[in-house]
Amino acid sequence: MKAEAMLFGGVALFFWAAAALYGVWSGEAAGATALVVAGGMAGVIGFFFQVQYRRRGSRPQDRTDADVAEAAGPVAFFPDESPFPIVTALGFALTATGVVFGLWLFLIGSVVLARGVYGMVFQYARR
Questions:
Q1: Can you tell me the distance from the alpha carbon of 103 to that of 98, in angstroms, rounded to the nearest whole number?
Q2: Is the distance from CB of 113 to CB of 98 less than 8 angstroms?
Q3: Residues ≥6 apart with Cβ < 8 Å to 60
Q4: Do residues 1 and 52 lie in contact, with contact meaning Cβ atoms separated by under 8 Å?
Q5: Which residues of the chain have pLDDT under 50?
Q6: What is the pLDDT of residue 127?
Q7: Dmax over Cα atoms in the chain, in whole Å?
Q8: From the centroid of its chain, how far is CA 88?
């Protein structure tokens, strides 16, 4: 993940440099803010990859002399059918419709949406 960390770190630095130049030359705050936020998002991803590289070390993909078979690992888990994506979609639809039709529908949709997201996040927690 070292290559990915370097890539996203470079993208973050590019956006921050572009934000500085854009802010100085244009004098407009919205574009500079958007570039700073884009650099921050790329920086977060680069930081994540850097932390993963330090925790796990190098992978076969990081070496130029590696074979494809070195990266293959055991395939041990395939998730079964789950109702939670449908529950989440229904909750989102009710919540969005509740914005138009009233607070009562919004609250019902929020509860259904929260249950769907909770179910998707924790359905395999005991595995």
A1: 6
A2: no
A3: 66, 67, 70, 71
A4: yes
A5: none
A6: 65
A7: 61
A8: 18
Q: CB count, 10 Å around CB of 78?
A: 5
Token reading at 98: 């509740």
- What is the pLDDT at residue 66? 79
The Cα–Cα gap between 35 and 14 comes to 9
Question: Do 94 and 108 form a contact (C-beta atoms < 8 A)?
Answer: yes
| Residue 22 φ then ψ, to 5° | -65, -40
Pair of tokens at residue 36: 């700073």
Q: What is the DSSP letter of 125?
A: T
> Residue 110 burial by CB count (10 A; 0-12/13-18/19+): exposed, middle or buried?
middle
- Please give, one letter per residue, the 3-state secondary structure of 59-99: CHHHCCCCCHHHHCCCCCCCCCCCCHHHHHHHHHHHHHHHH
Residue 118 tokens, joined: 């909770």
C-alpha span between 6 and 49 (Å, rounded): 9
In this structure, what is the dihedral angle of CA atoms 13, 42, 40, 11, given to the nearest 10 degrees? 20
